[in-house]
Amino acid sequence: MSKNDFIIVGAGIVGLSIATRLQQLHPRAQLTIIEKENDVAAHQSGHNSGVIHAGVYYEPGSLKARLCRSGLVDTIAFCRAHDIPFRQCGKLIVATNARERERLLRLHERARSNGVECHRITGRELTELEPKISGIAALKVVESGIVDYAKICRKLFELLGENGAVFKMNAEVMGIRESSDFVDVETTTGAVSGKHLIACAGLQSDRVARLAGLTADFAIVPFRGDFFRLDAKRADIVKHLIYPVPDPALPFLGVHLTPTIDGGMTVGPSAMLALHREAYRKFAVSVSDVSDMIRYRGLWRLLLRFPHAGVSEFVHTVSRRAYLTAIRKYCPTLGLPDLVTHQCGIRAQAVSPDGYLIHDFIIKRTNRTTHVCNAPSPAATAARPIAEFVVGELAD
Ligand SMILES: Cc1cc2nc3c(=O)[nH]c(=O)nc-3n(C[C@H](O)[C@H](O)[C@H](O)COP(=O)(O)OP(=O)(O)OC[C@H]3O[C@@H](n4cnc5c(N)ncnc54)[C@H](O)[C@@H]3O)c2cc1C
After folding, report:
1. Ligand 1 binding pocket includes 150 (Cβ within 6 Å)
2. pTM above 0.85?
3. How far apart are CA 337 and CA 231, in angstroms?
4. What is the CATH number of domain 1-88+143-218+359-396?
């Protein structure tokens, strides 16, 4: 068995970015990327909203806040260097009542602490910018943009291959054994050995961490996000990304209107507990995923903390009309025929045993393995800085 210098598990945007960073720093290193699907970006990296986040929402000083800021700059630089279309269309976070306006003020402070270029505008200014959107105030985030992250992944794949990286596709990692000098990886299509392994397994990150002997103090809980797209006649309804003001008591950002880089417009995503980590059909069920969830007390505690959110997200998933009600709060002219069924994505969200969503990125280590255990949004935006961070720590 030939020995690799580095083995990467997972060909999503985080794994590919880490592989790229390693190749830049160690051009002669032997590098193998193991991926269980037959293409890159098969899961989260190819099923997301395509937003280049500016860093408004995140706890100041957290990894998310720091890496998102540099991620925006790096994503745009990468797109420019490789002719990948992107657009900095800006984002409007819209308050529709007095309580949301209060929250908007706090969000503005947080955004400013994170160094985000943004300013408050009145309801009238909002209508001048976006005649189809109604609200009493908004936060305008200047730098936010849109891109197709799957395209970025395909370019990274191409560059890595040109520079000598080996891709082992359709190979699922089933075992990891670490000795003093090497780490041996058992996959469904044969063994691979190397000096260091970096796992970026997204929805399976807790399971892969366990294979390496890490006792995980979290579990991945999958949240399904269903999108609609607007009928082509309404696809130019707004120019900016339009987001509601998030409820700080709830885990996700709310249903938003998102222009896509191919000229369309999506509405979504919802956030319902998924019964399968990696199947995109509605109501797909995996017995092993469900049984892991049932046995995880952190999930029960989370559900007890957010019973109303659980019910309302379920309603959004099954009822187009409920979804429409959420969006009409700030975009009143939309009607049911405008909503066309579109893709869904499944978020990998780490949940602690006491039932809290872990918001920040989590990276764990053994002697010869590193695991990116929690890389939720904005990890597509921040993938390159995450790679610098992980590879920097490896050098230390
Ligand atoms: C609905 C939705 C909307 C989002 N919107 C945005 C957004 O607008 N902007 C943003 O910045 N972020 C967004 N995100 C988050 C972003 O998509 C993810 O944070 C990012 O894609 C994570 O990348 P990853 O490489 O860690 O995971 P993934 O892309 O999921 O890749 C993990 C890979 O590991 C492979 N793998 C897993 N286990 C094994 C194994 N045992 N053996 C071999 N291979 C394995 C999987 O097949 C997969 O290809 C969104 C996510 C979702 C789901």
Report:
1. no
2. yes
3. 8
4. 3.50.50.60
